[in-house]
């Protein structure tokens, strides 16, 4: 094989990395380079430096160290049996690309993942070396996200958490059974144990209260996240969300990413031919938010089939099914009730509650508070507004669902 | 009518000074005409710069506070900061509105944050728009390396923000790129960061630095990270509006990427799954399997632990991290059985290492028990819980689950053959004796199992942690410690 140029390697190894949805660069340690002795800052809200035409943000240099892999996971473009082109970066190449991209303000930092070469420990050791070189030699203070390999040794995990802001391990599949079917070399309990390890290490590393009274974790200060592939197996949305709520509760994850299974070049036979609709991924994220910030339980989301309504967002779908709980009086209702009103976000509810202390909230005030009135209208009563018969209208759903397209008359 | 002409550089600080003076003089808002001067900076030569008069502007909170107290204006820090942010908007009315609002706020005529007030709403919206514009500047400035004779590397960028927000937006770059020199030039104001010092000046002409070599690598990355199977141009344009494209090196690729996407996806769909996998894959698979194979367990308890890890007799362990096996040597004289692992035990994969474990350890120490010499396990090996946000709420295992998990407890008893079993809590007692009823009256008195092994019932240490009454908690703890001590003594005596 002819020696590949840096550009060729970059092309192959970023192409191979694009199926990881995470690009978060927020949270964690506050660092900067005001002292003039290093490069980079992090810890505020993340910055998306560009957007690709697939609508996804580009915040980090997201690459694989190598796409050679001894595992054979059916859904993955880099599985051992795939005939994709292979390449491998050296430690210096990754470090230089990161630093030069960062200096030009293209990125917030590095998201490094890798195929598994030789052994889990060998691979993890190389990834850790890249992170260490960036921190120690280049005095890089930007964001580093390392994908950890569940089967790697404890010492390597320790070091990974010391250099990286975030660690992640993908659960890949919604159920243990699908995982063993699609990824014979991976173990669901091995992945869970690795997440448990990260949580324990984070808790152990919290020393001394910060000025806000919270004790920051020194180990992987921006937490851990995971990703699950949607639509490669037959799992329902409720199965997927049940797994997420379990993961959030068990391992203190910052995020669960949902990645709609996407066609790949040279696909494996085990995969379905058709990808799921992208809107399913979107609905899962909306439902995930309802679970985390709006007080919904998994059992409340999705219909009898356990699938989310693709036409209507999950909160509106819930409200349409529970019309007896509406209209909600914006001047009297509790925070919990307000959070369940379609078109009201957490910020709107916060503003609403503080405005109530100043006097009667009228219908026309709500829009200025950030409410989406087209959605909220039928579900609320406010000063100067009552939905009257709107709520019981059989055609209420049609207000929210996309209009059926009329065939062209010809 | 008063006319106030603010300088192009340092506009906000000048407005603050003017507003304070006007307020002190009692000038009503409708009597002032505000504008930003074009080449009239010399009018303000006395104070056009920062505190040292050089034009350097350290935007630190101290600087605000120094200036605040003097005039007839009293507004909160948040309010002042938000108003000053709104002053970086391009709306020509912003200075008049800001002055009007600070006067009304000082008089208490309007409450901060009241969105039913028109001025307030506009200021909040403008501040938000400016915040967004600054955020986009942080995102979309593209530096190019330029030659320099100095020791520090030098970079330059040309950027066109929607609002005149350079002074407010560039300190971010000073914090981030502290070890290099850089220039961000925009149509109104240019920010220069040299040798660690940030200053601003009026831009004389458009200055686009020449392209550098890394830009081509960046374009390679941009094209490769794009997934043609999910084209969402609208989503991209919502976050990266076209008005920024002309200064983004990667944007020139967008039309071709979008145009070619469909054909690429069609190509993938037409590639049938390969019948022949990559060469040598069977060899790789076999080697991987050998690499990942775990070493065979050394003893019977090791076998039990391995088999337990694959247990699916009930649904508990599928949602827990993994079954938590017992800990201790075969032949241990004392076996201690608890209810089920808790949050900590589940994460660590070891029994009794959480808060209840600490209570037990204390009792064990008091009784002179070496924990490593006893066998410690649970009646149910998996952690049963209900997820609540970021926490797991302990749930009691039901009778069916206890019965199904007894399989493992019986195997452990068989292998360890203890002389005495300490059953902590009613679940453990139920699993061992068939009934967990009346533990408070049964504790402390040994019972005998069908195979002749004596069992000493005690409360579960977690029970002690839940007692709200301090006197009762202390009494119960003493009682628990006495029971542990008795179990240790009985196990010793039987040896």
TrEMBL record, chain A:
Cofactor entry: [4Fe-4S] cluster
Biased composition (Basic and acidic residues): 28-37, 200-210
Pfam families per record: Radical_SAM
GO MF, any single term: catalytic activity
Domain Elp3/MiaA/NifB-like radical SAM core: 59-287
UniProt KW keywords: Iron, Iron-sulfur, Metal-binding, S-adenosyl-L-methionine
UniProt superkingdom: Bacteria
Residue numbers spanned by region Disordered: 22-42, 200-222
Keyword Iron assigned: yes
CDD domains, sorted: Radical_SAM
Protein name (database record): Radical SAM superfamily protein
UniProtKB/TrEMBL annotation, chain B:
GO biological process assignments: DNA repair
MF GO annotations: 4 iron, 4 sulfur cluster binding; deaminated base DNA N-glycosylase activity; metal ion binding
Gene3D superfamilies: Uracil-DNA glycosylase-like domain (3.40.470.10)
Keywords: 4Fe-4S, DNA damage, DNA repair, Hydrolase, Iron, Iron-sulfur, Metal-binding
Keyword Transmembrane: no
InterPro entries reported for this sequence: DNA_repair_put (IPR023875), DUF4130 (IPR025404), UDG_Type-4/5 (IPR051536), Ura-DNA_glyco_family4 (IPR005273), Uracil-DNA_glycosylase-like (IPR005122), Uracil-DNA_glycosylase-like_sf (IPR036895)
Top-level taxonomic group: Bacteria
Annotated Uracil-DNA glycosylase-like domain residues: 325-485
PANTHER family from the UniProt entry: TYPE-4 URACIL-DNA GLYCOSYLASE (PTHR33693:SF9), TYPE-5 URACIL-DNA GLYCOSYLASE (PTHR33693)
Family designation: Belongs to the uracil-DNA glycosylase (UDG) superfamily. Type 4 (UDGa) family.
Designated name of the protein: Type-4 uracil-DNA glycosylase
Organism listed in the record: Roseivivax jejudonensis
Taxonomy of the source species: Bacteria, Pseudomonadati, Pseudomonadota, Alphaproteobacteria, Rhodobacterales
């Amino acid at each position: 094989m002819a020696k590949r140029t840096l550009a060729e390697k970059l092309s192959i190894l970023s192409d191979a990395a694009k199926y990881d949805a995470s690009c978060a660069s927020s949270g964690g340690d506050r660092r900067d380079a005001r002292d003039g002795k290093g490069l980079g800052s992090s810890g505020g809200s993340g910055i998306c430096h560009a957007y690709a035409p697939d609508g996804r943000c580009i915040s980090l240099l997201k690459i694989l160290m190598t796409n050679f892999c001894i595992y054979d996971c059916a859904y993955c473009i880099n599985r051992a049996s795939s005939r994709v082109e292979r390449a491998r970066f050296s430690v210096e190449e990754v470090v230089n690309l990161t630093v030069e991209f960062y200096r030009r303000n293209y990125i917030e930092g590095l998201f490094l993942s890798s195929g598994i070469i030789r052994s889990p420990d060998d691979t993890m050791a190389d990834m850790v070396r890249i992170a260490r070189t960036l921190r120690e030699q280049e005095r890089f203070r930007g964001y580093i996200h390392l994908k950890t390999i569940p089967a790697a040794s404890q010492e390597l995990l320790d070091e990974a958490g010391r250099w990286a802001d975030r660690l992640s391990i993908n659960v890949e599949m919604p159920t243990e059974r699908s995982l063993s079917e699609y990824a014979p070399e991976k173990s669901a309990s091995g992945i869970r144990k690795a997440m448990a390890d990260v949580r324990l290490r984070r808790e152990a590393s919290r020393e001394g209260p910060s000025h806000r009274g919270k004790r920051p974790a020194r180990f992987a200060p921006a937490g851990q996240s995971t990703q699950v592939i949607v639509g490669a197996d037959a799992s329902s949305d409720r199965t997927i969300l049940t797994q997420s709520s379990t993961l959030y509760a068990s391992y203190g994850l910052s995020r669960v990413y949902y990645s709609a299974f996407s066609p790949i070049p040279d696909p494996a036979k085990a995969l379905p031919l058709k990808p799921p609709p992208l809107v399913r991924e979107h609905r899962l994220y909306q439902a995930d938010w309802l679970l985390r910030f709006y007080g919904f339980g998994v059992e409340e989301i999705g219909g009898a089939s356990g699938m989310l309504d693709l036409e209507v967002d999950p909160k509106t779908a819930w409200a349409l099914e529970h019309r007896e709980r509406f209209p909600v009086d914006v001047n009297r209702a509790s925070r919990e009730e307000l959070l369940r009103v379609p078109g009201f976000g957490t910020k709107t509810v916060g503003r609403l509650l503080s405005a109530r202390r100043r006097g009667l909230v009228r219908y026309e005030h709500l829009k200025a508070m950030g409410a989406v009135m087209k959605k909220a209208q039928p579900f609320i009563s406010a000063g100067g507004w009552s939905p009257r018969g709107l709520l019981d209208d059989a055609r209420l759903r049609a207000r929210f669902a996309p209009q059926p397209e009329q065939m062209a008359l010809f | 009518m008063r006319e106030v002409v603010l300088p192009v550089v340092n506009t906000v600080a000048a407005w603050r000074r003017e507003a304070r003076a006007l307020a002190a003089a009692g000038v009503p808002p409708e009597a002032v005409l505000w504008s930003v001067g074009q080449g009239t900076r010399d009018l303000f030569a006395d104070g056009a710069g920062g505190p040292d008069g050089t034009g350097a502007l350290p935007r630190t909170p101290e600087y605000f506070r120094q200036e605040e107290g003097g005039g007839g204006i009293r507004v909160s820090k948040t309010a002042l900061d938000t108003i000053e942010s709104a002053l970086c908007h391009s709306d020509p009315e912003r200075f008049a509105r800001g002055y009007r609002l600070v006067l009304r706020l000082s008089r208490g005529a309007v409450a901060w944050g009241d969105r039913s007030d028109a001025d307030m709403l506009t200021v909040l919206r403008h501040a938000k728009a400016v915040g967004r514009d600054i955020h986009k500047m942080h995102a979309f400035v593209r530096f190019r390396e330029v030659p320099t004779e100095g020791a520090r590397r030098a970079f330059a960028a040309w950027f066109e923000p929607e609002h005149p927000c350079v002074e407010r937006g560039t300190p971010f770059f000073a914090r981030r790129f502290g070890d290099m020199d850089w220039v961000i030039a925009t149509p109104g104001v240019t920010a220069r960061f040299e040798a660690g010092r940030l200053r601003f000046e009026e831009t004389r002409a458009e200055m686009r630095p020449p392209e550098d070599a890394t830009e081509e690598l960046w374009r390679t990355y941009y094209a490769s990270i794009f997934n043609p199977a999910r084209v969402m141009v609208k989503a991209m344009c919502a976050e990266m509006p076209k008005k920024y494209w002309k200064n983004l090196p990667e944007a020139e690729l967008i039309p071709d990427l979008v145009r070619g996407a469909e054909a690429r996806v069609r190509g993938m769909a037409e590639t049938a799954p390969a019948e022949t996998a990559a060469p040598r894959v069977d060899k790789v698979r076999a080697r991987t399997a050998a690499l990942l194979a775990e070493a065979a367990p050394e003893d019977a308890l090791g076998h039990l632990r391995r088999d337990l890890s694959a247990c699916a007799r009930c649904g508990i362990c599928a949602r827990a991290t993994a079954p938590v096996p017992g800990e201790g040597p075969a032949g241990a004289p004392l076996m201690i059985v608890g209810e089920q692992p808790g949050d900590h035990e589940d994460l660590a994969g070891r029994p009794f290492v959480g808060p209840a474990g600490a209570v037990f350890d204390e009792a064990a120490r008091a009784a002179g028990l070496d924990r490593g010499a006893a066998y410690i396990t649970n009646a149910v090996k998996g952690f049963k819980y209900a997820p609540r946000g970021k926490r797991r709420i302990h749930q009691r295992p039901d009778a069916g689950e206890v019965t199904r998990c007894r399989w493992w407890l019986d195997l452990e008893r068989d292998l360890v053959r203890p002389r005495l079993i300490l059953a902590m809590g009613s679940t453990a007692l139920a699993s061992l004796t068939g009934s967990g009823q009346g533990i408070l009256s049964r504790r402390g008195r040994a019972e005998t199992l069908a195979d002749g092994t004596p069992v000493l019932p005690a409360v579960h240490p977690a029970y002690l942690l839940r007692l709200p009454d301090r006197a009762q908690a202390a009494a119960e703890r003493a009682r628990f410690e006495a029971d542990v001590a008795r179990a240790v003594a009985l196990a010793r005596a039987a040896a």
